[in-house]
């Protein structure tokens, strides 16, 4: 097991280095650049040339990459071009927002998806099953952007149940402890802020949860159907075991393996879905940061750090998923 | 077993109910708070982007200027709702016959937010600070200072010219005398530039304002710029919560002018245009900027106040004379005649837009009512093209489809209309869409890859040099690296004329010659950008320079 972890970690390092080079070269070959963003509309060509030189963009790309890596290994990702803040500050501010949103979405997706998929399989061909299949098809095919605007239009503009955007009502004070606003409110006993944050979280979380929810329902359903036909289930039933035991120990536990894999893979989908969802809801997380950093004048330092971080999260989550197999399925441990 | 399951279900239901209840309760408490507000309340305005920082001299964009304008004052300012000058921190100002020595009589009894007095020494401290700036700050970030003064005490990098700033003397507490090396037409208008706001010398020193450091690809600013901006304005800095994207400004009870009516201004940064609109409709913000032209009517219909700012901008069609065909004046004139600008204004212009015949609004000195006008005349256009031997001309037309600018709310649509007009007279148009920050500005302004392009400008202060001079005062890739030395010289001469009558005459002649002899571009329209507020907002004075000060704003309940 240890060897597996070490090997995966080494793979991770190689992946990250290759990715960093790729991003670095790609970003710098895009038209436009941070010089425009820094200088604004009124700069003369001389000023542009001056700043290009000051920032070292006139040097060969390998030299630039070398300097970048030199700083990165010391943990310095530079400062954001747009705001001047250290990239680590910018990201650590945005990261909890995205994690809070992704977690809420995952809770909805798993919390609803697994039971729904299970029930659909149990009552295969009945109306609940048909309805679920139709629903998941819709869920998978509906563009997040569209769904976000649709939900917002209905629930914030027509019936004013939820706020249109942001993480907290403007002007409402809260104490920032972890950056997870719902949790912060509970920790500091600012229950008002906590409830307000939860109130803001609901629509974006539903929007972001839609695709993973649909996928999880389908995978769970298919997986449970497979297991239902297995000999050991029939044996268990023949032995007269209690239904509860059969469902829990034999069916669900065995059916969960592909579901867990899916949850891991959906983490990546969540991160990319967050870009759109956050834009629609002005969420202020990593997704917003990515779009701002691209459209707001090629904020290279922030973009590079985010993409590396996203890759890191993705690889680590998948590592955890692989490890969790061992706990769910003893056969993996033996291997 | 059954009982335990029931208990779990009840517990889950209880937690859910509590959360929903708390949310509802939280909302009603908040509503109660604002309803019972005894003082002026809070004005929440939706900003469209992050400010860079709050040190005026390092900024050049509207999103930074909006909060800066609430906290800082300038020596000279604009009469509310106009681009005309009036006294700011200086009650009066005058210059010697050469236009080199400027004497400011300062307002008395004014204090900075930190309690230190505003006086002539403070004014000179600010001018000296800008002039003596070094290092990263001087090299890259002081766009407006460079535009106005041209250089530093010691230029550390190439590209900076000789400074026209000579010295500043505090004759007494109430008199500051500024000496320039030569006259420049930008003054006194440029003294009203938000970038040249006067900051507290004590705070500048205390919070290390001049230290700008370059770290990798970027610059980081001082505590003054980020956490402790101190001016004399109607609001003091409350904080910038970057996790919540909110800038808070508090009422300055000691303000010398009209004290703010609201207790607090919050600028909430919402980058998505449609989200800003939804927040306005939901009542969570009370003002938004630059609504899309298509939305104006709907918003008005819903009871919002859509306030048109007087148009202080220009949209033009640039003609790049690097293309030999476009070097021929007749071809440029043919293009001007081919465009049905009246129709463009009517179909694509925001409410209140009007056809432009010159590259400056008619409220700016030097506007000549008698310039050659190019009324829509496709036959004449075709004839001119024939005379010039430019029939069957093909031109690459660059435009940025991804932005809205105050002078150009819908570039894609403007392009389509113009391209149709040109094609109608036999000019083949290749549309080249390029993202604003992803190639358009580079290709047009730096490399001059285009034949035609649409671009524009919002004026910074009331001076023709800030419009016509900015565009055509020297050779630029945007219009072809022209050899129009005659035009450059005429503009330099007009800009250097000190007496008002002579200056007016010189600029009028420049505008006549631009239209008739040079035509480096075709002026299209002046479009008033709008600002929208909810109906309970009173007292907002829209400014042609987007120089709105929120101290006049009140919220009626």
TrEMBL record, chain A:
Source organism per UniProt: Micromonospora luteifusca
UniProt name for this protein: Peptide/nickel transport system permease protein
Signal peptide start-end: none
Pfam families membership: BPD_transp_1 (PF00528), BPD_transp_1_N (PF19300)
InterPro entries reported for this sequence: BPD_transp_1_N, MetI-like, MetI-like_sf
Organism phylogeny: Bacteria, Bacillati, Actinomycetota, Actinomycetes, Micromonosporales
Keywords for the protein's UniProt record, in alphabetical order: Cell membrane, Membrane, Transmembrane, Transmembrane helix, Transport
Localization (cell): Cell membrane
Family: Belongs to the binding-protein-dependent transport system permease family.
Membrane topology: Multi-pass membrane protein
Domain of life: Bacteria
Stored Gene3D superfamilies: MetI-like
Transmembrane parts of this sequence: 9-27, 101-119, 131-151, 197-217, 251-276, 302-328
Domain ABC transmembrane type-1: 95-321
Automatic annotation (TrEMBL), chain B:
Protein name: Peptide/nickel transport system substrate-binding protein
InterPro entries: Peptide/Ni-bd (IPR030678), SBP_5 (IPR039424), SBP_5_dom (IPR000914)
Signal peptide: 1-22
Keyword Signal: yes
Keywords on record: Signal, Transport
Family: Belongs to the bacterial solute-binding protein 5 family.
Residue span(s) of domain Solute-binding protein family: 85-476
